[in-house]
Design goal:
about 260 residues, alpha+beta, five-stranded antiparallel sheet, three-stranded antiparallel sheet, 8 strands, elongated, disordered N terminus
């Protein structure tokens, strides 16, 4: 078993200006606010919308941490691990000095409910939980992020230059042409008797709709929205489809 040395950042990395690191709490709020303002989905209540924005924000931040495109540092950090064949794992800190390696975040994300994510305190831990086949442990305490690489935000200003609660997107142009995407779906559905049916003739599910939307965005914009957005639209589409089926069934019973 190999134990990585405690990472205690001294000063600030040369490519990140002093004062540019922000707490995990502020980072989550920044990204969550972006999802609140830009998410075109209409939710039943404000509370549901806030929960969806928080979940989307944590998913997006963790995705970039595991990719290594978002840098994070910690007040205290340790990470030990073994491979399944019990040979020592040789981790390399391939990120800039003083930042948490992406291997730590990948392990944290893979643990699911067996990991602890405290975004308010900035404490992230896993291991020693009694989970089956657990052979690695790690913790990162007092985590801070480089705001210039946060997902779903266009601002790279420091906290003292722009307050978290001052974010506004009123009148901002939407990044994704959802109207165009759903007009495309309507055209596909109307074009032939098969419409949006699956190859086996079955009704489409939310994943099928998400793939239709993703293909359209790739063809028109060269990129796609977050998977969570595609899944949400796919789910809403299926809900509307089921509602229409129920309405038709009720009309048939009344007519009979």
């Amino acid at each position: 078993m190999q134990t990585l040395p405690c990472v205690r950042p001294v000063g600030v990395e040369p490519h990140i200006e002093p004062g540019r690191w922000i707490s995990s709490r502020d980072a989550l709020q920044l990204v969550g606010q972006a999802y609140m303002h830009h998410d075109p989905i209409e939710y039943a209540t404000d509370e549901i919308q806030r929960c969806a924005a928080r979940d989307n924000a944590t998913e997006a931040i963790l995705r970039r941490l595991t990719q290594g495109s978002l840098l994070a540092r910690a007040v205290d950090f340790a990470f030990t691990s073994d491979l399944e064949d019990w040979h020592p794992t040789k981790w390399s800190l391939d990120e800039p000095a003083g930042t948490i390696p992406k291997t730590f975040w990948s392990e944290l994300k893979s643990r699911g409910r067996f990991a602890t994510q405290d975004w308010i305190a900035g404490d992230f831990t896993f291991g020693d939980s009694g989970a089956p086949f657990e052979n690695s442990t790690g913790y990162a305490l007092g985590v801070q992020f480089d705001p210039s690489a946060l997902p779903a935000t266009s601002s790279a200003s420091a906290p003292n230059e722009q307050k978290v609660h001052a974010i506004t997107t009123r009148g901002a142009r939407r990044k994704w042409d959802w109207d165009g995407a759903f007009l495309h779906l309507a055209a596909v559905a109307h074009h032939s008797p098969d419409g949006l049916l699956r190859e086996d003739g079955g009704e489409p599910n939310q994943s099928d709709i998400g793939r239709h939307l993703a293909d359209w965005f790739i063809g028109t914009a060269g990129d796609t929205p977050e998977d969570s957005q595609l899944r949400s639209y796919g789910r809403r589409f299926v809900e509307e489809l089921n509602a229409l089926k129920l309405l038709d069934a009720n009309k048939s019973r009344v007519a009979g």
